[in-house]
Write a structure and sequence with these properties.
169 residues, mainly alpha, 6 helices, DinB, Four Helix Bundle (Hemerythrin (Met), subunit A), metal ion binding, DinB/YfiT-like
Length: 169
């Protein structure tokens, strides 16, 4: 697996881990929000997945099998299942990315962008990280356990490193 694929595996792992962590929360905790974030926890996770689907469509031209849109309500169990399928879509896209030619049409203040495949891939990583941080900020603001979604924890989850043994005297 190359460096680029590892970056996307972190994106996949971190989003799954965040969903699984949030499945342990109460409905009241899931409704929490704090200024400066996207909003409540489930709508934020819904937004992560919905935008991922839009980015995948820009790369492949294919709609998601189970569309997720911000205007609808989803349970974390539903989002977890969608994310599992979406993760496989990302892996497939990464295998085929060199054959993809992407041109983004003009939109709002943005001009047409040719050769946009790297931009779309970059946006997927940055967007996911940004909004996972929003959820963690909400959790931390209310004194709830914040999942550790950093690269080190991902690396440990792959078995590449293990926790250090405590020093003995």
């Amino acid at each position: 697996m190359g460096d680029f694929e590892i970056l996307f595996e972190h994106h996949i792992w971190a989003t799954r881990a965040l969903i699984e962590h949030c499945q342990t929360l109460t409905p009241e905790q899931l409704a929490l929000s704090t200024p400066g974030t996207y909003g409540a926890i489930v709508p934020t996770i819904t937004h992560i997945i919905a935008e991922d689907q839009r980015l995948l469509r820009r790369l492949t031209g294919e709609a998601a099998e189970v569309p997720v849109v911000e205007e609808e309500s989803f349970t974390l169990a539903e989002l977890h299942a969608v994310w599992a399928g979406q993760s496989e879509r990302w892996r497939d896209v990464l295998r085929r990315r060199e054959e993809m030619e992407v041109t983004l049409p003009p939109r709002g203040p943005w001009p047409e962008v040719t050769g946009a495949r790297p931009l779309v891939l970059l946006e997927a990583l940055q967007h996911g990280n940004d909004h996972r941080t929003h959820v963690c900020s909400v959790l931390g603001a209310y004194g709830l356990t914040v999942p550790f979604l950093c690269g080190w924890m991902f690396w440990r989850s792959t078995g590449r490193v293990t926790a250090a043994e405590p020093a003995t005297a």
